[in-house]
Amino acid sequence: MPHADSLALPEDLDKRQFYEHVCTTLEALLTPASPDDPAANFITCLSNAASLLYGSYENYGQAFGRQDGRRINWAGFYLVPSLLSPATSPASVEPTQLLLGPFHGRPACLSVSLKATTKRPVGVCAAGFLSGETVVVPDVEARPGHIACDGVTKSEVVVPIVVKRRRADGAEEEVKVGVLDIDCEGLNAFDEEADREGLERFVETLVRLVRWDL
């Protein structure tokens, strides 16, 4: 199947079926030819993942249609510096920010701070990363600390990306490497069930198939 055809959707999908289809397609796109396939690296895989998710939302007009003012205007990733520049940001150092990773949509903030101040709490991406839990925001303007990378965004959902790695002593540990961030031009675009569960499954598929180079 040509990769561009991955964006084709069956008709009359409800949200759960939509995410099931997208996750199945993601697995087909990212399954490496072999465990050491260079194409399994995280930049390559996250680039295709962002494109697949953004394009699939574009084609799923019944839930995220332009005519209803509920268009998805951004889909992508913010990642810990140790992934993107390990020479200058070793994994042993606690990150103070997340850096822009692969995405689709308008230009975005190059980084988001993980540190709150007395005047401003952390933004949505930082909140999802620090808590390790999905954050659904029905109205970003009502959310303290929201970082307005794009003024047309009205609602947002952020899913943390947590992977397992083996330490030098052989023990396994969980490591947070970033977040998946989805923005929408409409209010209340994402629900606490179908969207949350679907996007968490999307991230779980990424975690399983991507080589994270930790």
From TrEMBL:
Name of protein: GAF domain-containing protein
PROSITE patterns in alphabetical order: UPF0067
InterPro entries: FRMsr_CS, GAF-like_dom_sf
Organism: Rhodotorula paludigena
